[in-house]
Design goal:
three-stranded antiparallel β-sheet; disordered C terminus; globular
Length: 138
């Protein structure tokens, strides 16, 4: 089991088993929500996650994004029966969670190079992966 929490400890998260997938996102919403050039998330099935403590949320077109109302820490997003937990929220660092894909790669900062090979998508995962990723078998 992996545990995560907000900065003040008012919200605690337990994730059981391994995530369905781990990825990076460079979309405008993730950038603005995090204040960083990308977000890194591990996605679990909702039934494998327990959340204790009160959160506040706001919803963009597809994801309800939750944060701690006391300290403001961005913690997780809920969409389609899945919970995406930000890697920075986990209590143990570093984690052994490795991203396998990137979303909205056209918005990736030019100076940013990802250390592990990832499947690259021009937008969301439903979009076709980049020709470079397909040519490399990713």
């Amino acid at each position: 089991m992996r545990t995560a929490s907000c900065s003040c400890g008012a919200v605690r998260i337990e994730a059981r088993g391994e995530p369905v997938r781990v990825g990076l996102c460079h979309c405008a919403t993730c950038r603005k929500q995090s204040g960083a050039p990308l977000t890194a998330n591990a996605i679990w099935r909702a039934e494998d996650v327990t959340i204790q403590g009160d959160t506040r949320s706001w919803k963009d077109t597809t994801v309800a994004r939750h944060f701690c109302p006391s300290c403001g820490s961005s913690l997780f997003g809920i969409s389609d029966g899945e919970i995406a937990i930000g890697l920075g929220a986990f209590n143990q660092a570093p984690t052994n969670l490795v991203p396998t894909y990137e979303l909205w790669v056209g918005r990736r900062e030019n100076w940013l190079r990802v250390a592990t090979p990832t499947e690259e998508f021009p937008r969301d995962r439903t979009a076709v992966a980049s020709p470079q990723a397909e040519a490399e078998g990713r």
